[in-house]
Amino acid sequence: MGVGEVVAEFGGVYVSSLLSTWLMTIVCFAGGLALGVLVTIMRVSPIKPLRVVGDFYVQVFRNIPTISLLVIFVYALPYLGLLLDYRTCLIVCIILVVASFASENFMSGINAIGVGQIEAARSVGLSFSQIVRLIVIPQALRTTVLPMTNLLIATLLTTAIGSQVPLTPPELTGMVNYVNARSVAGISAFVVSAICYAGTALLLGFLGNKLDKKVRIVR
Amino acid sequence: MAAKSTAIIQMHHVDKHYGELHVLQDINLDVQKGEVVVLIGPSGSGKSTLCRTINRLETIDSGEILFEGKPLPQEGKELAAYRAEIGMVFQSFNLFAHKTILDNVTLGPREVLGTPKEEAEKEAMDLLARVGVAEQAHKVPAQLSGGQQQRVAIARSLAMHPKAMLFDEPTSALDPEMINEVLEVMVGLAKEGMTMVVVTHEMNFARRVSNRVVFMADGQIMEEGAPDEFFDHPKTERAKDFLDSIRGH
Ligand SMILES: Nc1ncnc2c1ncn2[C@@H]1O[C@H](COP(=O)(O)OP(=O)(O)OP(=O)(O)O)[C@@H](O)[C@H]1O
Ligand SMILES: [Mg+2]
Fold first, then answer.
1. Given the CA of residue B51, which atom of ligand 1 is nearest to it?
2. What is the rounded distance in angstroms from the CA atom of residue B213 to the CA atom of residue B203?
3. Model confidence over B92-115: pLDDT tens digits?
C-alpha cells in the first residue's frame, strides 16, 4: 500500500490524530512551562529548603526517560489507589519532564540577567516578588525563546510515547499501529506520520525564530 | 562640624568579614543632611562594601548603622521601603535591559510608590530632560552610550525622591569624553543640597562639591578631611602614596 492510498483510506483519521498530537503538545508544553516557572521560582527563592526541593525536582525528572515514568504511572499508581485514565497519565508524565527542562532554560535565562540589574531593582525598593514578576520572568522568557522552541519540538516528539497506551483517537505514532492493524500499509503508515511530525516541527522552528527576532533583548 | 543629631547616616563600630578577610574594620562615619562625602582609596580597600552596607545590599557582622536616627530594617517590606528612600548609582549603570528608558524611570514610582502612570511619566520626562536624555525616552538601554545610560540611572534614582544617594564609582566604566556629562549632573544635585556618598577618584569633582573626603585602606578609615586639605596635605603615608599613584607620579 503506497502513501497515497494510505492517505486516501485513512486521511480523516490521520487528521484527527494529528489534531490530537497537536492538542497534547500544547497542553503538555503549557503545563510544563507553568510548572517550570514555579520550580524556577523555588530554585531562586531566598528560602533554602525551597531551593533544595526545586533543584531536586529538576535532577529527578530531567534524568528519567519519559517512557519509564509513564510505565510507573500506568502500572504503579493503581497500586497506590490512584487511578488515572491513560491520557491523563501520559499528559502528567510529559508535563513533569518538560517542566524540568523548562526550568533549566529559565535558569540560564536568569543567569544572563546579571546580578547588577537585580541589585538596582532592590535599591529602587522593589520586593522579591515584584523583582521576579517585573524583571526576572519577562527577561528570562524573552531570552529563552530559541531553547524553548527546541523544547516545544521535543515535547511534540515525546507525545509519541502515547503509542504505548491505548488512546482514542490515537496520536500520530499510535496511528501507525492503527493503520497496520486494519490494512497492510507497512512503512507507508510511518511515512505519513513522519511527514506530519516533520512539517509541524519545521513550522514551530520557523515561528520560534520569528518570535525570537521580535522579542530578543539587545544587551 | 554640625551637631551629631543632624547626621542622616550614622555608622558606629561597623565590622564585616568575607570569610577570613576583614573587609570593614571598626568603621565610624557620620554623614550630615545635605553633605557630600567622597570615599577614596586603593582597589580592594572596602569602599564599595562600605557604600553598599548603607542600603543593606551588604549585611554587617557587628556595630550599627542608623538612618535618620533609626537602625536599618533587617529584611522584608520595611527594608524595601527603606531602600526606596536611598538612591543608588552603580559603576555598570544596571538599567533594566528589557524596558525603555522611560519605563526604567517610571517602574519604581509606579510599583513602589503607587504613582499613577500619567503622573509618573510626566515626572520621568522632566527628570530625563534635566539629565539631558529626553530624546532617548523610547529607546532601550543598549541603544544609549555609557554616559547617557548613567544619566538615566541617576534619573531613575531621583524619581523615587530619595533622601540620600549612594554612588559607587559612577564614572569608572565610562570613556573619558563622557565622564564630565555625568559629573555635571552630580554637581547639580550636590548644589541642590542632596545628601551624597560618592566613591570616586575624580579629584576635581571632590574639590568642587564635596564637604569631606574619607580615605580608606585595608578596610579602615585612615584619615578624613576637607577636600583641599586632604589632597594638598595628606596626613598619612598611605594617603600620600595613594595620591601619588593616582596622579601618575
Ligand atoms: N562578595 C564577596 N565575597 C568575598 N570577598 C569579597 C566580596 N566582595 C568584595 N570582596 C573583597 O573585599 C575587599 C573589598 O572589596 P570592595 O569591592 O569593597 O573594594 P573597593 O575598595 O570597592 O575596590 P575597587 O576600587 O576595586 O572597587 C576586596 O578584597 C574584595 O576582593
Ligand atoms: Mg569598588
1. 18
2. 10
3. 999 999 999 999 999 999 999 999
Query: How many CA atoms, within 13 angstroms, populate the side-chain half-sphere of residue B41?
Result: 27
Residue A77: exposure state from Cβ atoms within 10 A (0-12, 13-18, ≥19): middle
What percent of chain B is modeled with pLDDT above 90?
94
Domain that holds residue A52: 3-215
Single out the residue of A98, A100, A115, A19 nearest to residue A53, CA to CA. Answer: A100
DSSP sequence for A143-157: H-HHHHHHHHHHHHH
Those residues whose beta carbon sits under 5 angstroms from the ion ligand 2 are B 48
pLDDT exceeds cutoff 50 at B3: no
Residue type at B123?
A: E
The x, y and z cell numbers of residue A138, run together, are 519577562
We report the CATH number of the domain holding residue A91 as 1.10.3720.10
Beta strands in chain A (DSSP E): none
Question: What is the number of structural domains in chain A?
Answer: 1
- Chain B contact for A168 (CB, 8 A cutoff): no
